[in-house]
Queue: 4 jobs
Job 1
Amino acid sequence: MLDDARRLRPGQFALPDRIWIARWDGAANTSTTYIPEDGWRPGGRMKQYRGGHNETWGGVTINIDSNFIDLGAGSQPRPEGRCPGTRLRYWKYPTLSPAAAPTTRVKAIQCLLTEQGTYSGAIDGAYNAATIAAARAWQAARKFTPTNAFEKRHWTALLAAGTRTTIKRGSSDESVYRLQRALNAAGAGRFRATGVFDTKTEAALRSYQSRLRIAVSGVATPQTWNKLQRGL
């Protein structure tokens, strides 16, 4: 009846700004068969898509329902504030060797190794002796066998380095950038790191978790971070 009033008698009733939909169809979205897609969009829907069920987190089992929220302006990326002027976001991170020409990806390594405390030179993009020495020192500290090449596993671990914050779809903070870059480096995704945990990030994370044979939750748990930070 509420949607009939919206569609058939526009302007005659004071309608709510937002609606809550109870539709236990198992689809994590705000779509339903009884309200057209043009109603209360964007930013005006919340849907309970799954009723009460048991879930276990941190060894504790609770009975909860599942809801998908699309309210307000949505998650907004926060300024990262790392490595001013140095690009960190790429779709892929190729292996670098001593023969590599200067490149912006080397600048990313130099910046991140500076944060890790093993590099103190110029951020100039040159994969030179100083950069290689810093990379080897970081590799040794992370229990990798030191090598002059900077490979996929090294990229994955370096990009993921930091606090193992549990994040999921809708999250928006510094750790989302790290997760998105690390998933790209690991070959689980190919997308732009935006700082917002969106559907593409969740799909890539689920793919990664499936490949590593850990719980496929679409949530970046400490276990997931552990795998990424080990370069797996």
Note: The chain has seven helices and three strands.
Job 2
Amino acid sequence: MSPYLLIVTAVKEEAALLAATIESPRSVRAGQREMTAGVLVDTPVNLLVAGPGQVNTVQALTSAIEWQRPAAILQVGCAGGFKQAGINIGDIAIASEEIDAHLGLEPERPTEIPVDPLPFSIGCYGGFEIKNRYAIGVELTRKAQSVISRKMAGMNITVNLGPFLTVSTITASDRRAEQYFDAYQVCMESMEGAGAAHVALHYGIPFLEIRAAANVVGKRERNHWNLPLAWERSQAAVMTLLKGGIF
């Protein structure tokens, strides 16, 4: 089996355009997970829809990797954008770091953010102890930002590079959004990134995470969300990367 790019999403809509474009598609199975294998822009890929949340992501990625090790992992999808970071609905962002918002010690006042650091590490990779932050390769992320930015120039689509926040409880108030931004200076919020970044570090596999904002983090106003736009733009970014020869 030749090396391939493992593309993981939380829900099928985040991979639908890629699935419709893939050449020579075939169904493969690993760890009771269905994947679609094929070719995108001359690149062997496996599309994996893992389900929402870190637990689904970690189980699905581990199964896929143990079945056949990929050359790289690309996580794609929608997210909430922090307006404090200048993110608008439809903007694209690339993670420079993943932060697990709920991994730590409860502070003295439970309403405080951030949680206090753990008194122990949850792993050591490349000589660095991990507690709740996962660094992502600088060279790969900067190349990705450069390639996508050139494509989006003149389209009024911002392509950001910055820290992402992974939550288990979706933020639904402006106050909590402000607290998270003040604590971490993040640009995007999702429910899967820290888990994917951890698995990639554990196996020593290059990792890249790209998301488009479907909503603004804060007070929950579903009538202002634009999921189809975020799905479309995040997958367009993937195709741009493949055409740019990033992988």
Note: The first helix runs from residue 16 to 21.
Job 3
Amino acid sequence: MRHGKRNNALGRKTAHRKAMLENMACSLIEHKRINTTVAKAKELRKFVEPIITRSKEDSTHNRREVFKNLQSKNAVTEVFREIAPKVAQREGGYTRIIKLGTRMGDSAEMAMIELVDFNELMLSESTTKTRRSRRGGKKKETDATSEAPSVDETLKTEKVEAEETTDEAAPEAKEVRAEAATSKAKEEPKKEENKEEDKKD
């Protein structure tokens, strides 16, 4: 019985299980995502996340502790150089497990485990989405309503602008009307003369 035993033995002895998790952690650090079974992915998450947390503070002691768990100099340098700066602002939850269905041969549940901050597609989607909070939205709306002019004010300003434009255009309109009246007055006697000549003929 497994009373009080929290870790999954994964059907292996301690040395075999530890070696397997070390190799899987090195592969995850190098490739940023790997495919494995769900049970192994869950155990790997418990194994690798404390290592990444320790890599945030670059010191000789931390490098030795990480090397004790990974047993790979390349993986240690990768953790401290590339991964640590990206996860500096994140307080845990460095990995993500995505289930992929079952395996053909033995119907084992498969999953992909990846480092959250190295998935560029999901990061771009999260940056394009605008975050909205109810309190912040209300404040912005009240600020916008206080700054934006009311409907009555806009109507008043439009009327004033229309009156200004009519006042400016008034003298020009008067001149046009006067010219039209003089041209009509000149044309009327000519029409009368033409009519009299037609009668004589």
Note: The first strand starts at residue 33 and ends at 37.
Job 4
Amino acid sequence: MGAPMSDDARLDFCRRLAADAGRLAHGAFGRAAMLPAKGRHDEVTAMDREVERTVREAISRAFPADAILGEEDGASADVGCAEFVWIIDPIDGTANYARGIAHYCVSIGVVRDAEPVVGALHDPSHDRLYWAARGAGAWLAERGTTRRLAVSPIDALTAATVECGWSLRRPQADYVALVDRMLTAGCAIRRAGSGALGLADVAAGRTEGYAELHINSWDCAAGLLLVTEAGGRINDFFAGGGLLAGNPILATNAALADPLAALACVPLRHDA
């Protein structure tokens, strides 16, 4: 089944743009780790802004009627009224990037009427390009091959691995309680420092869930679509102003959707 015709051009463009932006970011990878703390922060911030500026300019040229929301430069004036909104995280996993840890990516998602329709992630450290279009599946290109993604079939909490993202926007005690519930239920827990790649891991069947008590839309717009197109379940992230204000997030495989939703205290959608 092909992607809806109105999304074809955006999918092809998004996929190429994410790959180009990932290569741009990776060109300076490791440089920040050699600097003192303040210089490291400045180096990463400068690269964040350069990547986002490059992506924004490319989108504006190719789709001038579309709105743009980015982590660094915020929302374009038409974000509330445009049919399509591009959502950019120029470097997701900046703490890893700053320390020379090869776990970060560029994330570009497109939403239409508050529904993700196109998304792409590029993990340049491993040359992995993930992409998805609504109704057309989720895919991964790496090492010269392309394969369709599918979530894990694991159906026992005691065999599951769940990544629990941490946000300063919620009390530390709430995060500790989330991890405690998962551990008590028998899940293995990880935290790798990139929400976008955490969602890609769920879509690829490497983990069974990703939960975070608050995440911004630029961290997850592409990843949410990857999960649903790979057969997984998600919460209604864009409800209640999630586009601009962020929301809690839960993405799971299908087999453990109900128990993980209960543990995370985040209800899942039934139509995605």
Note: Residues 157-264 form a domain with the D-Maltodextrin-Binding Protein; domain 2 fold (CATH 3.40.190.80).
